[in-house]
Amino acid sequence: MSADVSIRPFREDDADGLYESVRESIDDLIRWMPWCHLEYSISEAREWIGRQIAAFEARDEFSFAIITGNGHVAGVCGINAINWENRLANLGYWVRSSQLRRGIATRATCLLADWAFQNTDLNRLEILVSIRNHPSLRVAAKAGAVWEGVLRGRLQHRGETHDAVLFSIVRTDR
Question: How many independent structural domains does the chain possess?
Answer without folding.
Answer: 1
